[in-house]
Amino acid sequence: MIWYGGDYNPEQWPEEVWDEDVRLMQQGGITLVSLGIFSWAKLEPREGEYEFGWLDRIIEKLHAGGIRVDLATATASPPPWLSHRYPQVLPVTVDGVRLQVGSRQQYCPSSPVFRRLAARLVRRLAERYSHHPALELWHVGNEYGCHVSHCYCSVSAGAFRRWLRAKYTTVDELNASWGTAFWSQQYQSFDEVFPPSASPTFRNPGQLLDFDRFSSDELLECYRNEVRILRAATPDIPITTNFMGFFDRAADYWKWAKEVDVVSDDAYPDPSDPDSASSAAMTRDLMRSLRGGQPWLLMEQAPSAVNWRPINAAKRPGQMRALSYQAVARGADGILFFQWRQSVVGSEKFHSGMVPHAGTNSRVWREVEQLGAELSALGDLASTRVDAGVAIVLDWDSWWSLKQGALPAHLSYLEAIHSWYRELWARTVTVDFVPSTGDLSGYSLVIVPSLFAASGDALANLATYAESGGNLIVTYQSGITDDRAHITAGGYLGGLQATLGVWIEEFAPFAGPAGEPAPSGVLLGLPSGPADATVWAEYIHAPDAEVIATFGTGALNGWPAITRRAGRDGAAWYVGTQLSGSGLDDLLDRVLAEAGVVGVLATPVDGVEAVRRDGRLFLINHSDAPVVVAGVALEARGVHIGERSVAGGGAA
Ligand code: GAL
After folding, report:
1. Residue 37 CA, closest ligand 1 atom number
2. Which DSSP string corresponds to 405-425?
3. Does the N terminus or the C terminus of the chain have fewer Cβ atoms within 10 A?
4. Could you tell me the domains of the chain?
5. How many CA within 13 A on the CB side of residue 561?
6. Could you tell which of 297, 300, 304 is best to mutate to test the pocket of ligand 1, judged by most ligand atoms within 8 Å of the CB?
7. Looking at the annotation, which residues are catalytic?
8. Centroid of ligand 1 to alpha carbon of 338 (angstroms)
9. Does the beta carbon of 265 lie inside 6 Å of ligand 1?
10. Whole-angstrom distance, CA of residue 548 vs CA of residue 12
11. Mean local confidence (pLDDT), 139-157
């Protein structure tokens, strides 16, 4: 079955409303609700005093109504008594500001007090509900790191030192790794080391990178702290925590995903962003990839508008449905929302709910009800998989490194990735994401955008892939540092130089006078004629590769921009600029043909997404106009699901 439901916060409502909630849930086809995510203050109103009566009652009502429960551990927002009594739990920002109560997530991830009190609550919840027949799934915390991903308090400083000691053993090792000979930063003991708080100018890159890794590990330790208790109590109940898509702060989801039983994701594409369909698709594909293709849950999406952008566009009629089908087509086994009933109090009262302020005589409710009915008919799709022939490498070390200051240029790692994804999506080519040291052998084409901080193992993995017949595209600002943030000197790219047949002499990003948009350049040599080169340029030597395109302007005139080194079966490409338009088209035309990768549709149509799950064709028209595609008429934002084809995949 495909789960359907949302976050349910009954504590915001008088109990009289609960019966109506359950009745409407049944009417709407709801099968699963996430319960108690922000209920700590209500469950433990005073330290050590628990009030489970209300939770017992609502779980019973849900159970009687046939609705399963994704029970939260309720630790996402500590109650005011906690920080009143233990003020050291409150987190400190990079600027030294201690964050206060009155919002949510105000805890230091390293706080032993927080972990102890959270564990105690979880133990009580596990004792009470582990045998409840309504329990389907555990929901640990909520969006770890969403608001407080890094904490700079003295408790965190102590934890950071312990983490560093475990990693480096001696302070000399730490000094060597962080390159502290620079700017007189040598440490004599671990006690002298602090988190990288606000500083006079650029902070040590190795310290920043380690602090990101440490912060991801500390949040993960908070998650594990609760999971240990749940596993012991209910070895057979799956556990999740909700991820946040391409989350660039402290959570390396490759590492996290190993510790959840099912990946779940919160996704809030901006309904007014013309790019939102491809960026949402990209997020779905990442979620599917995090556990090697295992089906995942869309844990939260908005029924219509959110309340946290400066202006909050409503979803257009059919848009929520189209995005929901997109998730299902890309491997989701559940579609859930934030939240069930739209709040009338608190800072999310303008965030849409499945039951809006207007009640059930509303477009939002009608769409919720319709989708519930439709998804219940798609049950046989659950647990099935999606095949992809192309992989894009995603790497959190590189992302974190590219967010530091003092770099050759400010580059958007996400946009570098999206630029490839968007074009493949438009061509209806299905993409997986992989970690830089992951198994690449099943892919006909692997794209590596700006793998800035690459370990020797990662470079060797990519080289092995290309040398065993794969088609590899590596783009600018890859292999620039190793995993200690040390430059890979001698032309960058390390072990990949031989694979690609190139080395880089000097960077020359496109730069204009301050405050003005950077100019762009021209690429020459591609089949469709001159193409745009933007963002990045560099002086590339190609001693052992064919030059496919050259820069056509300025001092770089005539220097290689795109190269190709033929391999045994495939080829290793290097792309030294940001491609778009005809440049990207020309390159992908050739590489996809050489790699034998075909899209789901032989003739894609603008704005129409096509993907196959378990051999079944999904066509989703994200545009505001009706279209006919592959002989199928689709309304604006319409969806079509084809019959299962035995062969699966292939061009329609
Ligand atoms: C998520 C969060 C929910 C709710 C939602 C609003 O980040 O998990 O609790 O705040 O955003 O869009």
Report:
1. 9
2. SSSSS---HHHHHHHHHHHHH
3. N
4. 390-595 (3.40.50.880), 608-646 (no CATH)
5. 31
6. 300
7. 143, 300
8. 7
9. no
10. 62
11. 98
